[in-house]
Amino acid sequence: MIKLSKRLRAIVNFCDKNKIIADIGTDHGFVPNFLYEEDYNRKIIATDISLNSLNKAIEFSELRGNKGKIEHIVCNGLEKIPPVDQIIIAGMGGILISKILDRDFEKARQAEKLILQPMQQVDYLRKFLYDKGFKILDEKIVFEDNKFFHIIVANYKAIKEEYRDIDLKVSKLLRNRKDKDLIEFLKYLINYNIFIIENIEGSSTRSIYKKDKLREENIELKEILDEVQK
User: Fold this and answer.
1) 139 has a pLDDT exceeding 80
2) Longest dimension (CA), the chain
3) For residues 125 and 147, is the Cβ–Cβ distance under 8 A?
4) Which of 26, 36, 59, 140 has an alpha carbon 20 to 30 Å from 216's alpha carbon atom?
5) In b/e form, how buried is each residue of 202-218, taking b as 16+ CB within 10 angstroms?
6) Which Gene3D superfamilies match (predicted)?
7) Where are the domains of the chain?
8) At residue 171, does pLDDT exceed 90?
9) Is the backbone of residue 77 left (phi > 0), alpha (psi -120 to 50) or beta?
């Protein structure tokens, strides 16, 4: 069995068996090879933006004895993949993931499940999903290598959900679930905001405004933390 990182293991745990799955920006191809070897799917597609990038995944498939079992496609985002049941986009920024989904919106809309793992800008990605009519079905926070990773599972429902600014930064779903990993993430956000406030120099209008906004955000974060810890 391929040994996956905690982050990648959490991603594959959201995949369902007997589905056609595409891993967009597959990098070394660990996820598609794991899915194939664990008999998760009817078909697995691995893509990357250039042949040079995709060759890493092709070589890993050959090393695992899986040559010809996984379809490898050079493409930008979803542009050359056929309609699939589930789409994985992991290890990119939230802005880039949003652009990939928006550029081939019809394919994203038709998928039963999007499994998304942004490395940054998770708030931007949540806003995109809400504004475009996607429903967030599940989420998970993984702490690994001193970093918090967010995994978002969504599909298209053509209903725009209402949200506040804080809902983009802190998952509503995990708050309602009183998720233990969310507690640690909230503590991190609060302490990080305090650090930024203490290191903003000067007394310009802009500096004062930024400090005030961070203090206001921390009030909301502390209220959420208290509620989740009950």
Assistant:
1) yes
2) 63
3) no
4) 140
5) eeeeeeeeebeebeebb
6) Vaccinia Virus protein VP39
7) 6-160, 181-229
8) yes
9) left
In the 8-state DSSP scheme, what is residue 83?
P
Q: How far apart are CA 193 and CA 190, in angstroms?
A: 5
Question: Which residues make Cβ contacts (< 8 Å) with residue 9, sequence separation at least 6?
Answer: none
Calculate what percentage of the chain has a pLDDT beyond 90: 96
| Phi, psi of 82, rounded to the nearest 5 degrees | -75, 170
Q: Identify the DSSP state of 78.
A: T
Angle at 99 between CA 97 and CA 104, to 5 degrees: 105
Assigned fold of 6-160: Rossmann fold (3.40.50)
Q: What type of residue is 121?
A: Q
Report the sign of the C-alpha dihedral through residues 221, 223, 226, 230, in that order. negative
At which residue do the structure tokens 């899915």 appear? 35
